[in-house]
């Protein structure tokens, strides 16, 4: 089986018509060149895409920073040289993601780094956004639980807020799905409010 033609990276990208710059914005994005995509799947680029994917997912899918590949074999050096359009002869290479993003956009692939990797598959995961969403979900859980506590007679109990804080610190609820955790917290508060209504004695 022959290796995909690296020349396809630079072939087939017609110069844009200036009169179409505004009219073309509503058109569907042009499909990337199939042969160019096939070149990107050659085995010599496997380690590059693995490293770039991990970096993008940590970066919020933004093409910033660098990846460093060590112990490159001859096949990898050849593939990287063709992809980057510059000779790589050392066993170690540092690739700037902004440069790689620009190279792909200007090539027959015609799209940026994140979109190219999504095209090659599997889908990218924005881990930073996922962490932020999880943190926001946890904050909502505890603000709702505190509001539920404040709406019951437990609000006047000196032990109630430390009890809720101890649950929060233990991490027991945050290991559950958000809806389940919220239901568990509010049910526990309602149960305690029923057990210790008004100004009755505090638990021993």
TrEMBL record:
Composition bias, Basic and acidic residues: 1-28
InterPro entries: CHP02679_N
Location of the Conserved hypothetical protein CHP02679 N terminus domain: 64-197
Domain of life, per lineage: Bacteria
Region span, Disordered: 1-33
Protein name: TIGR02679 family protein
Species name: Streptomyces phyllanthi
């Amino acid at each position: 089986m022959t290796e995909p033609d690296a020349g396809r990276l630079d072939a087939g990208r017609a110069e844009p018509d200036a009169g179409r710059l505004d009219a073309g914005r509503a058109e569907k994005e042009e499909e990337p060149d199939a042969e160019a995509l096939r070149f990107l799947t050659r085995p010599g680029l496997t380690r590059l895409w693995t490293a770039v994917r991990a970096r993008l997912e940590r970066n919020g899918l933004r093409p910033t920073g660098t990846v460093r590949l060590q112990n490159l074999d001859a096949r990898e050096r050849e593939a990287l040289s063709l992809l980057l359009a510059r000779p790589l002869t050392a066993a170690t290479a540092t690739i700037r993601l902004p440069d790689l993003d620009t190279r792909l956009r200007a090539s027959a692939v015609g799209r940026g780094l994140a979109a190219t990797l999504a095209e090659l598959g599997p889908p990218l995961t924005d881990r930073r956004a996922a962490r932020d969403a999880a943190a926001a979900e946890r904050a909502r859980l505890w603000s709702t639980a505190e509001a539920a506590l404040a709406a019951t007679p437990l609000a006047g109990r000196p032990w109630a807020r430390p009890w809720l804080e101890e649950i929060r610190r233990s991490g027991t609820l945050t290991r559950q799905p958000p809806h389940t955790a919220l239901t568990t917290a509010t049910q526990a508060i309602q149960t305690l409010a029923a057990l210790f209504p008004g100004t009755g004695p505090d638990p021993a």
